[in-house]
User: Fold these one by one.
Assistant:
Number 1:
Amino acid sequence: MSSLLEVRDLTVMYRGRGRRKDKVALEGVSVSLNEGETLGLVGESGSGKSTLGNTVLGLVKPERGTIRFDGSDIAGLTGAARRKLSTQIQAVFQDPYTSFNPHRTIEQSMGETLANSPPMSRGEKRARVVAMLDRVGLDSSALSKFPAQFSGGQRQRISIARALLPEPRLVVCDESVSALDLSVQAQILNLLLELQRERGVAYLFITHDLSVVRHMSTRIAVLEHGKLIEQGDAAGVTDEPSQPYTRRLISASLSADSELQRDRRSTRRAMTRLAADATGDRSKRADEVLRTLEHQAVTEVFAQPVPQSRALALPLSRGIAGVADVDGVTALRAAVLELAPRTAEAMTPAAMLTLVQEARARKCSALISRGQSGVLYGRIRDLAVAIETGDRARALELVGSFDEPLEPSPHPNGARAGAHTIESQA
Amino acid sequence: MSAVIEGAAIQEQSRRAAERGAGFLPRLVRQPIAVACSLVLLVIVLACVFAEWVSPYGPLDQDLQNTAAGPSASHLLGTDQLGRDILSRMLHGGQVTLLGIVQAVVVCAVIGLFLGLTAGTLGGWVETVAMRLCDLLLAVPGLVMLLVILGIYGNNEAAAMITLGVIMAPTLARVVYSATIAVREELYVASARVAGLTSFQIMRRHILSGVTGPALTQISIVAAVACIAEAGIGYLGLGVAPPAPSWGNLVTDAQNLMPISAWMLVPTGGIIAVVTLSLTLLGNGIRDAYMGRSSGSSKAFSWRALAVKVSQAASPAGGGAAPLGQESILSVKGMTVRLPRGSSEVTIVDDVNFHVAPGEAVAIVGESGCGKSMTISGVLRVLPMGAHVAAASISFKGAELTSLSEREMNAYRGTGIGFISQEPISSLNPAFTVGHQLEEAVRLHRGVGKGKARQIARELMARVRLPEPDAVAKKYPHELSGGMAQRIAIARALAGEPDLLIADEPTTALDVSVQCEILDLLRDLREQTGMALILVTHDWGVVAEACDRALVMYAGQVVESADVRSIIAHPAHPYTRALLQSSSVGIAPRQLLPVIAGTVPVPGSWPHGCRFASRCVLAEDACRTGPIPMVTLDEGSAARCIRTDVDELVRT
């Protein structure tokens, strides 16, 4: 299937004036978007994501590169040829307060997007505007009102109605929901999704909010300082990011789950301590990182809509015989971190990864030397069961007990002291 | 305190927005001064234009019986040295003067608008050429040029006034140019370009409407200046030649008459003063109408109305106060905040009760317009003009804040209670380096000398983990990134060693990775200093990450209060639950999200019963009959809902 929008090797410069230097806003960026799909563009401020949107809209002239829309290059188009495209490419901007001229009525503002559509009578035009307003949940009394008479959410509905009026094939949504409250944001996201299903419009969805982009997109492209970092299908980029920058973005986004947030914080702090600790007891700090990561993995699994223990299936299927040696135990235990995308080894910073792996190997050989690899196998199997049955408390208890000797111990204190001795010998 | 001011600005905006519903003219008509000035000008212009019919005598008719006479029945404004009727001469002379004003204004408007609009809309080299041309014209000494032109064309009024128009054009061009640039950057101009409008259409529809106000104001000033200039030319004898009258010539005549009678100066000078003043005041009116300001309101001129009123209300049942035996650093009981709207008041925060324990982090959560920011503004007593705070008690570390004077209150702000806002960069003064501002805060709050303050400032910068504090200290706010500016704002808040830090959406404007760092920093600072925190936010992720307890606000009321873990896991109020579910977490990608239908009711239109009832799935008749009290649920948690019993059932 050929792409609706195909951006190739796009470079955009903002020319400096006077003493200000030229600034490269985008450098050799290539992205593509199919008909009826959504390409999410993520990045932090200054990453060039809005510049890319504005270049597609013809508001910014590119330095180099091509933008093919429906097969033809639109990068250099100006004047009437560019204006003709307004029936095909539309936009919904961030700020619902400044995206309407305060001195013009809603009917006047909305009618603008029909400027380049085939000529129609006044009545026809009004009928289309009314029908579109009705679709986004507003009645015809809105026509003669001014933008100031609407709330932010209503104005964003009107923005969407305005953009979709000429039945475009591509809509650039530049931070379209960022300025809205959570409940209003949900209403607008739903409206965008419904309209996409009804009309097959494609969205170039620009946002800094990872959870929103994950929810809306079929594909995601990540930008940093004007360069494309990675691009792929939405699940792949958010669950198995290949680039450290993407990982950093994902691990910085917050969840409303306070226990999850606490676990993430513990991991983060353990990692900071390990990174800061150049001397001495690095192995103990690495152990701590491993422990917090494993605990977080289980909390993360239970924060998923449907907790799944799929990552554990393969190593468990090898059976107890598979964990006779250190490699087997280590592989089994490594699978715990793969339970959730955010704790997966692909997400662990490279500098940290080796230390975590060493810590795990050390722990596992201690288990083998204690003859407890079978116990670990049992506990991980129970963990899988606990996840599948939704028994969170049990799962958390199990993940905390990997390095403890056989339970139940009649003398917990004595047993722990014993375990420590074995560990330090190993 | 920028967030607080921002809150005020939003209030102001919404009020203005309501007014903006009406067009420019209706708003102008609502201003008595502007209307009066327009009428005066209209009468004068009409009288002058129809002078042939209106004036009782011809301009040159002499009544030699009555020379240099004062006002009388036959000569309403008296006569001059030659017995000519002053009123008639003024009306006829007005034709000359007003024509001169029109010539100057038209020339000035055409050149100024053309240069300003083309430079502003086209940009590039056109902009450079047009603006340099303006600079060049501004550099020409206007008076000298005027005299030279008059010298060349000898008593040619038109030449003089056209020259005057040209001289004044660059000022107008600059006003138009800057207004155009401001509008050019507006999103609605970008929208219009995306909509496929041509540059000319955009200029006509969008840019002109934004430029009209400032341009009209400037033009009214140009007219006033032209009026005085014409009179000046006439007075110097460089305008129309006597005996033909003009307002300037009449002043000359009046001056010559001075030894005999001073009366003639009154009407002749008076008419110039009246026209000039009317034009200037009309310009003010146009500006106000354009900005949506209603300067006609007498209330704005009363200083008493401007002050924030604080009163102690009768003690209600203290729903959210600290449980007995528990120490609290801040305890707010029955606080209500009202803002003036027109001639009445509207309640923004309604009977809010809460407490903060030492070292505790409390989140105030809710959507915009629910009164979160106004609640903390009420505590800090930094409210918009004319606001009214009433509370049974606002006690901070045992001191009753409601009974403090404004001056005593100042001692608490910054020192006992620190504040950081959403927009760190705009909360710093752009004219000073951040190091200077930090040192200033240290000196103010700790009473130390310059050297010591510098040292403490560096320590604070290190504590908020700013890399290279010495280099950062020399920077101006605009040179900092959002995250760095927020660190400076936190350092400044720490200068007073506060026991309570109030943060209004401190990370909303920041990138996610920076947000994480700032929240970590706040947590570490709390652990180090034992400082309590009130964090206003709409983001549940921030609540979960940074706070121990949460207050959920809806339509000016606290609707739920509980510790963060239980409020997120088991929300008791339907609004809290719906708000938590609105986030896309836990919903399969590209599926519809659960939404709360409708919108938050606006202050002033709150229903008598439960304020959430119209959007609530659980609402029944009992919810709508009367105010819903806070119901205590478990230990330390409470919800303003009578149906908390069924919640668990509905959720599963």
Number 2:
Amino acid sequence: MSHSLGVTGTYPLVLTLWLLPLLGAIICWAFGPQLRTMSGWLASALVGISFVLAVASWSDATQGAGGTLGAHQPLASWLPGFDFGLLLDPLSLIWTFIITGVGFLIVFYSIGYMDGDRAFARFFAYMSFFVFAMLTLVLSDNFIGLLVGWGLVGLASYFLIGFWFERQSAVAAARKAFVINVVGDVGMMFAIFLIVANVHSINFGAVFAAAPALSAGVLFAICVTLFIGAAAKSAQIPLHTWLPDAMEGPTPVSALIHAATMVTAGVYLVARCAPLWDHSHGAQLLVGGIGAATALVGAILGTAQWDIKRILAYSTMSQIGYMIMGVGVGAYEGGIAHFFAHAFFKAQLFLGAGLIIHALADEQDIRAMGGLRRRMPFAFWVMLTAVLSICGVPGFSGFFSKDAVIYGALQHGHPWVYATDIVTAGITAYYMFRLLFVAFLGEYRGEAAQAHAAAEPAHRPHAPAWIMNAPVAVLIAPSVAIGAVLMFGGENSPWQRFFAPLFGATSSRAIALPPVSEGVTTLLVFITVIIGFAIAWQRYATRSAQADAVARLRRESERMPALLTNLLYFDWLIERLFVRPAQQLGALFGRVLDPHVFDGAVRDLVYWARWLGTLVRSFQTGLVRAYALILVAGAACFIVYYAVAAGVR
Amino acid sequence: MIVLATILLPLVAGALLFALPRQDRVLSRAIGVVVATITLVTVIAAGTTSEWSFRWLSRPFDAAFHFGATPTSFWIALLLTVATACAIAASREARLRDFVAQLLLLEGAMLGLFLARDLLLFALFWDLMLLPVFFVLIGWGEHPATAWRYFIYNFAGGLTLLLATAAFGVIYGSTDVIGRAAGPLVGAWAPWIYAGFAFAFLVKTPVWPLHTWMPPTYSGLPAPMVAVVSAVQSKAGLYGFLVIALTLLPHEVHAYALALMVLGAVSLIYGAVIALTQNDAKRIVAYSSLSHLGLIAIAVGSGNPIALRGALVYIVAHGLFSAALFLVLGYVEEREATRLLARLGGLGWKNPKLAGALCIAALAALGLPGLAGFAGELLILIGVYQAGYVWPVIVALIAIVVASAYFLRLYQDAMNGPEVPDVPVRGDLTWPEALAVAPLLAALVVVGVYPAPLLHP
């Protein structure tokens, strides 16, 4: 390993924590019918052990500085320059913590959530496989290994979105997610071609060392093509349309893959490739802009949804927009901090939603909820604390991370991005409190909705088992307090010091003196949040609003602008620009060109040859045996001729 | 000597099989599997060192019965023997004894082709390997016209190959040249000789617009036979480009590289979009094959060393996944008596093993990172880009996106969704059936994770 980011040598701990979830996946897949419910316990135990190993390798992963930071384990080599290995440094360590730690909680929760499913063991095989794939993504020390992880998490996501594959909607959503993610993979492949052609290595260390010497055009092209991959995986516009549809999967899947971990892979990628972005101002502008736009678009679309999981999906998209914006403009610590805090409170939101959906027999429409505060007080407190955190209410984790990102935009000289982010924070408060108020306040509207489906027995909410409650309860602590513990203290916070060896050189690039101080920013964000909260309160929580809630909600759904019900026409455009033309082209080629033009030309040739060959028509007896005989006789003549020729030699 | 035994064993065993009692299906299959497995062992035992040569002609040019594996053909021969063993194990056709015999004869003929170190032998085995396929299309196929279309097209290619070989021999003085560090052929005739070779190779692969024999042939052949044909026979032309044309006629390959790349790129995208709209599952795989092999034509045209190494990986990968796809689709058709996607659906619930096998094969085919197809694709495109060609790379990347759409459509329409009520529900794969595809799927994972042995020939 001539070029490696990280110390040379082996580190079996990282190898073990990487492979344990794969082992779990194989066992659950192969012995599922025999293991039954044991498969869930086994899968969560193995992911839990991985987490413990990740904690144990803390000091080794944070050792050293610059080019020899972290622990390294070489794996294999394909060709010179194509060396594969695992690297555990502060950046991959943070992701490993979330993947295995939050992953453990969610897999454990699933034992309760998936109870009684006819493919119980298969679910845990897929979940374990996802954890393995995601670890491959963040632990690889090179671009091809990263891409392999990138593709495998896409596969795990595909399997889990389409987990209930008797539903056509789930099957279609899975396919859509996979194909859009292949668009991203292909973008990253192009980045790899650029990298290999210019640097002759795929190793992070070698590529980053060579980055300053690359021309601006090449560097920009590498960043843009890498970002196509990040945009597809992290649901950035215009490649975000698969994420809301992905809510077809079981709710724990949405919590783990489509909220806490996989969809933040784009954030990881940009942060990992910080040395590339630092040298390309154009790429920073582009990625920062797209991140901010995604944050805004996701928030706007979130205001128009009724499905509890779709609201959360759009909020995920919006929050990842913040993260991408942060790492895009160069505020790496802030972007990663928001990933870290988001993983907790968004997992909590999804698992809380899962408690509700589980209790209400798969009801996901918040219009058919209401009054759940009294019936499910635990779920209410879970959702409330997470909503306060995501809105960035001072003191909660989301406050510290979101402020860091927003202020980072200004520090790095992007006032428009900064303004967009502040507006988005207000919209976020509006749609999150809308969700909370409509679902939990007022009277329960479920029976009213179910009165139409008379034959079905009314599902009354019931309390979920401790298996589901315990992981959610554990999540409350970090989603409330981790920000105050780690991210308080600005430049001297533990968080900043943790990343200093990695981004130390870059954070000093915080250019110029921002016109607005951090305190004013906090105040601005807080004011917009209050405004968003007030509008939501006025529309859904006042006494008069709750009195005729059913009629009001129906009126709101009926009067929803077409722009919002059509989701800003992103799907519509993709369908008309790409999907349909490809199918029409396929039909044209397959039904017209192939049989009538290319094959037709050959048939015509044969026809004319036959016309010329009327003389030998007497040989055309039409008997297969005769043809075969002629064939064999011809071959025999040939062989005899050469045999004789050999003889007279 | 051992290399000669490798070739003769399946040929002799195939011929002797006709002496067996007609009814004994299990025995003929068992003999077929054993013979194919022994052949596999002898291919490994022969390695690239065992050679056998017997002088044949000295006028009008030197020729010899010269056999021996080159570093490239060793892997293709290995692929061939694995694919044949799996195909025979998966055979459930009517008149099984004769069918297995044809498969063995096909294996022998193709081993002769890939292990030939003499160009004249290569050309003769080229025609010989058409016969078992032709007979199976006549005897087991869906329409005799397909058989004739296959035969006329490929025999025309064989004819130009033979003529070009003869011309080559007369000018060069010897045809005992494959895999030998002999100098290239030069002179006014060289472009014409290259044209003769190229036509045969392009028809056999096939490459657009010479492909129209292929979809009916692939959908008409019984699954085990088409598995071997698409896995290995389609590689004869590419092998010809890689090992024969690139060493003996490098200037001509280089001079007409652009034409080859254009044909490859058109095949790539043309096959992909047609596969998107086909309803017959076997035709989808057939058109995907047109698309995928276009990529190897691009690799040959680029002439870049990384791309050429990738081409060998992709030849092996495509052989493995197309054989697996056709065998699994054969199982589906055998169970459901149809292979139209519109009629299939929901098989995954009752047939998890069948669904799993199709899933792995389809994922390898659409280039999932970590499986063999990806390693080949990636190395080819890295090399093509390095050689300075950007447009074929972009075409290939678009085709990869389209491939993910049509392979998922194939898998999901057959295995996912609600069960189709009027399609009979039969049992999942039996152990023998599963074991017949397992080696192919395992090899896809191994080659995908660690293709290094194929990269250091």
